[in-house]
């Protein structure tokens, strides 16, 4: 099984190509360029480097949200375009699930936090449990599905669970000071190479979803934003004020 994975849900732009148990290539950039400038050129560079025949790809995995509204739209448009051109399905991977999968096999709870602005985070709570085969394989168990809440709300839930926690995501530096104030259980932050989105993790989780039949036709795929955009919030507020 050969999968292209795309993640432009946050500050990072990441593209990966995986085949079965092999990560063939990954290209990740977090620098002063927009995803519209980076995503397709990165995919093109990977294609040239590994002599990729796009017709051999089985599916396109994409970070399906939440995240940056603009970034999600760029990733969505790219995935839909590839799916349409190649006649292949899209594997929508929830952004927070993809982040959590970076910590595959961790013994502690895993809590990705993405800065959602307005004092909120996109987050969820996960744990990795050994499967029943006795092989060194773990299943990712979702304790709390991805959501948009205040950091204090997710911190209180983690405190109630009373287990050590690993935080990761671009919300960690934003809420580091608040962590020190409200966390009552041991916690740490993921290391540099696991701290942000990775298309490789997305491809790995995407393979599992593909095997479970969790794919959609490219034309039917749409990102999951979890919140209204700023423009939509302002329009709704204006309509409410005008109605008064």
Strand order of the largest sheet: 3-2-1-4-5
CA-atom Rg in angstroms: 18 Å
Number of helices: 7
Structural class: alpha/beta
Give a description of the structure.
- Helix content is 36%, strand content 29%.
- The chain has helices at 35-49, 69-86, 95-100, 151-161, 171-182, 199-211, 230-243; strands spanning 2-7, 13-19, 22-29, 59-63, 90-93, 109-117, 120-130, 138-150, 165-168, 187-189.
- A 5-stranded mixed sheet has the order 3-2-1-4-5, with helices on both faces.
- A hairpin with a 2-residue loop joins strand 6 (109-117) and strand 7 (120-130).
- The longest helix is centred in the N-terminal third of the chain and has 18 residues, at 69-86.
- The model is unreliable at 231-244 (pLDDT under 50).
List the helices and strands and how they pair.
Blueprint: E1 2-7, E2 13-19, E3 22-29, H1 35-49, E4 59-63, H2 69-86, E5 90-93, H3 95-100, E6 109-117, E7 120-130, E8 138-150, H4 151-161, E9 165-168, H5 171-182, E10 187-189, H6 199-211, H7 230-243
Parallel strand pairs: 1-4, 4-5, 6-9, 9-10
Antiparallel strand pairs: 1-2, 2-3, 6-7, 7-8
Keywords:
five-stranded mixed β-sheet, alpha/beta, 244 residues
In short:
The chain is an alpha/beta fold and 244 residues long. It has helices at residues 35-49, 69-86, 95-100, 151-161, 171-182, 199-211, 230-243; strands at 2-7, 13-19, 22-29, 59-63, 90-93, 109-117, 120-130, 138-150, 165-168, 187-189.
């Amino acid at each position: 099984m050969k999968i292209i994975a795309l993640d432009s849900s946050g500050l990072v732009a990441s593209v990966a190509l995986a085949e079965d148990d092999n990560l063939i290539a990954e290209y990740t950039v977090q620098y002063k360029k927009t995803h519209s400038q980076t995503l397709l050129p990165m995919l093109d560079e990977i294609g040239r480097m590994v002599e990729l025949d796009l017709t051999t790809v089985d599916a396109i995995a994409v970070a399906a949200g939440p995240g940056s509204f603009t970034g999600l739209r760029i990733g969505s448009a790219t995935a839909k375009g590839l799916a349409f051109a190649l006649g292949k399905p899209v594997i929508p991977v929830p952004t927070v699930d993809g982040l959590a999968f970076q910590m595959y096999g961790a013994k502690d709870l895993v809590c990705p936090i993405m800065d959602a602005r307005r004092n909120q985070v996109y987050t969820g709570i996960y744990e990795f449990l050994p499967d029943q085969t006795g092989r060194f394989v773990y299943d990712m168990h979702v304790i709390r599905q991805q959501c948009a809440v205040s950091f204090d709300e997710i911190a209180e839930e983690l405190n109630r669970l009373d287990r050590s926690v690993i935080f990761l995501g671009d919300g960690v530096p934003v809420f580091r000071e608040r962590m020190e104030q409200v966390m009552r259980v041991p916690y740490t932050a993921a290391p540099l190479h696991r701290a942000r989105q990775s298309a490789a993790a997305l491809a790995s989780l995407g393979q599992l979803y593909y095997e479970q039949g969790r794919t959609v036709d490219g034309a039917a795929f749409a990102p999951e934003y979890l919140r209204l955009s700023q423009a939509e919030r302002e329009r709704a507020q204006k309509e409410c004020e005008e109605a008064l």
